[in-house]
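Predict the 3D structure for this chain.
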Amino acid sequence: MVAPPLMPIQVGKDIDAWCTRCRLDTTHIIVSLKADGLSPKRAECTSCHGQHNYRPPKMSTETAKASRGTGVRSRKAMAVAAAQQMADVTAEAMPAGHKPTKKPPVVEVSAPPAPKKKATRKRAGPKLTPSERSKARAAAAAAVAWGERLEGADVSSGRKYSMRETYAVGDIIDHPRFGVGFVVTVTEPQKFEILFEDGVRVMAMGR
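Done. Predicted structure below.
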């Protein structure tokens, strides 16, 4: 197979070259030739229109170098060249003096402290009057005395309370409402005092 004839190197003709401003292999226009008249000296990029000394395209150079090695090395060389070219494009696209931005520091926001609960004072019960305190003390003493009498008493011998009956000191009474009681005093022929669990009560009898 016969190779196609090479394009003549002439001023004003297109040629592939490495652009120092675009950092890419782009199409250039030959501006001037070297003294031998066979190779370009300066070229103008058709993308950025910048003029510079002619530099052969990097991709073809890297490919030629890679083709001289094994198949694996050839593929690696091409991949390295492509990655380098992309890195150059990215660096060129960044503004001058640009530095990679650092990630902002992570600030941990702690939850606000829970509001302190005000200590609540327990309200004391209503104050008792002197007479109420006296009655309370009497009721407590009566409960103690009633408990002592109950320990040694035969409750089964107690009599059902009736206003028509008469009673004597020491009798055990079974009242339908106040429960078991003990006769402590006969104040009048028809009245007597009975010690119940909740206190001493005056009851009627013999009527």
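Confidence is low (pLDDT under 50) at residues 1-5.
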